[in-house]
Amino acid sequence: KPLLRRRLAQKCCSLSALRAWLPFLSWLPSYNLRWLQMDLLAGLTVGLTTVPQALAYAEVAGLPVQYGLYSAFMGGFFYTLLGTSKDVTLGPTAIMSLLCFSVVGGQPHRAVLLSLLCGLIQAGMALLRLGFLVDFISFPVIKGFTCAAAITIGFGQVKNILGLQGIPQQFFLEVYYTFYRISEARIGDVVLGLLCLSLLVMLMLMKKKLVSYDGSTSETNSRNSTLAGKLVWIVATMRNALVVVAASCIAFSWDAYGHNVFTITGEISQGLPPFRPPPTSDITANGTIVPFWEVVEGFGGGLAVIPFMGLLESIAIAKAFASQNDYRIDANQELLAIGVTNIMGSFVSAYPVTGSFGRTAVNSQTGVCTPAGGIITSMIVLLSLAFLMPAFYYIPKASLAAVVICAVAPMVDYPIVAKMWRIRKLDLLPFVVTFLMSFWKVQYGILGGVAVSAVLLLYNMARPQIKVTDHGALVMDLNSGLSFPAMEYASHIIHTQALQANPPRSMVLDCHHISIIDYTVISELRDLLRQFELRGVRLVFCSLQPSVLKVLLAADLQGFKYADSVEAALHMVSGNWLDD
Fold first, then answer.
1. Which of 207, 226, 371, 517 could make a disulfide contact with 236, Cβ separation 3.0–4.6 Å?
2. Residue 540, phi then psi, degrees to nearest 5
3. Where is each STAS domain found (predicted)?
4. For residue 45, pLDDT beyond 70
5. Which phi-psi region, left, alpha or beta, contains residue 536 (left: φ > 0; alpha: ψ -120 to 50)?
6. Inside any domain, residue 20
7. Average pLDDT for 539-558
8. Residue 60: HSE in the Cβ half-sphere, 13 Å Cα cutoff
9. What domain range includes position 549?
């Protein structure tokens, strides 16, 4: 019997571990017809949103538009197997597209290799359980980056609204030459672009303000109103696809009559991408072969920034919707899902992807029940690649630009500045540094913001809050704990207020906030105890946590005295309590 119980326990542990690595095993046995219906509806809705967005985001990445679709289908399959959120959809996003462009400059082969390397880094981090590293990217840095990215991406599409060609990609030059050459704008692109923007904004506002009329007096009227509301909601949700299709029909009609008034997407590689290993080298325009290590060296800091931002964006989205829909996610498993998706995506010419907030919101609102909805979305993208690529020839670039602008506009969260000013003004420093540096180079903005946040964090560690009160003897309360960077500061205060006083004064250290202590602190405390003894006064510790007391006793500090409370320690330094 003990052997049988042991074997059953081992089997349960192995099954639990397998479910942890393959989360679909947790929900697949319970899958039913209702879940299938809801996943089909959500997958179809998200698919019709994904196709036009993928085409538009490829433009942001500086790649041929088919690369957006190449990057949009692998996530649905692998996230279904490895993801822990029922709502998240992986694919091209505005921010990842901008980061990709800033690193590879619109070179397809390098973008595909970047996807492989990012995936390997992310998968490696997942296996080593390093998902906690994203906690070191503070909220002001994220907000500063997303606001700057939204402005950079949005303004980068203005040239397509105006039908301008040959505009530099660097942000400040782009702004200058867009206004300098505004007189060259094509009327057809401007009119169509503004019309698409107006329709998208109108449909987006309709979706936000949509209300159900459950309070109607007639049951029939209530049913009809609800049906009409659902119809409007579906139309508003699929607004990107509808606007792009309508704009393509207009462009095709004008082209059929020989009027070339719109800048269209043009020739696109047709069919599914070949499944092949990603390139490990590159070839320049003059035929020179660039070896693997030179390509990687050219990626620079982007090779660190992109995996982190992909992880950060996806996990933030997953946590938000997990909280909203009452379930939990595994951050390291999410990281593994993103990493495997990017690795396998590189075999079908994809560039780096992550979770999309907009498409995840659509997925959740449509009532998706499991990650299997992503399979339907991926099938829609594959069908588009297989059969609709010739039709994409007539998609006006102005309509894709309108889709991108409407997608990134909500990312400009200007009220956050006032909130940070009210709560903690110092948080504006990493926000402003990240925001401004991102216009110079995106990855530098993130790195600069993280560096400023790290300096502020280290400063708070090195200068903890210390409160000194006088109760006959001085009582020092270390409100923020004590670590080796803070020890010199604490020692300075002790010397100034106790040892250098005339006459020297005894002191009680209230240590109830201290949970860990290191060798540097022990060394400094040994010296302080000696200094107090030389001056004929006492340094007494109180409210020590058991783990800290154990370390201090093991250090065998000469003259070390401690008490259970501040009152007992004050009694001790007054000389009325026998030494322990």
1. 207
2. -120, 140
3. 472-557
4. yes
5. left
6. no
7. 90
8. 32
9. 466-574
Is the Cβ–Cβ distance between 406 and 195 less than 8 Å?
no
Amino acid at 128: L
Q: Quick check: is 10 in a domain?
A: no
Regarding whether 498 and 397 lie in a shared domain, the answer is no
In the structure encoding, which two tokens stand for residue 312, read together?
A: 């950060």
Last residue of a domain, one of 411, 426, 449: 411
| Span 222-252, pLDDT tens digits | 444 566 677 777 778 788 888 999 999 999 9
Statement to judge: residues 244 and 388 lie in one domain: yes
How far from 364 is each of 129, 135, 227, 356, 422, CA to CA, in Å? 28, 26, 20, 12, 33
Residue 216 has pLDDT above 70, yes or no: no
Residue 158 has phi, psi (to 5 degrees) of -60, -35
Helix (H) or strand (E) holding 466: strand 466-471
Encode burial over 212-241: b for 16+ CB neighbours within 10 A, e otherwise. eeeeeeeeeeeeebeeeeeeebeebbbbbb
Same domain assignment for residues 340 and 224: yes
pLDDT of residue 412: 85
Q: What's the pLDDT score for residue 523? A: 92
Looking at the fold, whether 164 and 243 belong to one and the same domain comes out as: yes
Per residue in 437-461, pLDDT tens?
989 887 788 889 989 999 998 888 8
Give the model's pLDDT for residue 11.
Answer: 52
Look at residue 340 and tell me whether its pLDDT is greater than 80: yes
> What are the structure tokens assigned to 368, written together?
């998706």
**Rounded CA separation 260/515 (Å):** 72
- When computed from its CA atoms, the radius of gyration of the chain, rounded to whole angstroms, is 31
**Does position 170 have pLDDT exceeding 70, yes or no?**
yes
> Pick from 411, 445, 479: which residue ends a domain?
411
- Is 453 buried (19+), middle (13-18) or exposed (0-12) by CB count in 10 A? buried
447 located within any domain = no
**Can you tell me the mean pLDDT for 5-13?**
54
Tokens linked to 411: 């990312």
Burial label, 514 (beta-carbon count in 10 A; 0-12, 13-18, 19+): buried
Amino acid in position 519: Y
Q: How many domains does the chain fold into?
A: 2
| 445 in a structural domain | no
Strands 466-471 and 354-355: what pairing?
unpaired
Within this chain, do residues 531 and 393 fall inside the same structural domain, yes or no? Answer: no
pLDDT at 312: 84
Can you give the length of the chain in residues? 580
Cis ω for the linkage preceding 23 (within 30 of 0): no
- The number of beta carbons lying within 10 Å of the beta carbon of residue 462 is 14
What are the beta bridge partners of residue 467?
Answer: 477
- Find the distance separating the first CA and the last CA of the chain, reported in whole Å: 54
Q: Is residue 366 within 8 Å of 237, Cβ to Cβ?
A: yes
DSSP H helices in 346-441: 357-365, 373-383, 397-408, 415-423, 428-440
| One domain for residues 241 and 158 | yes
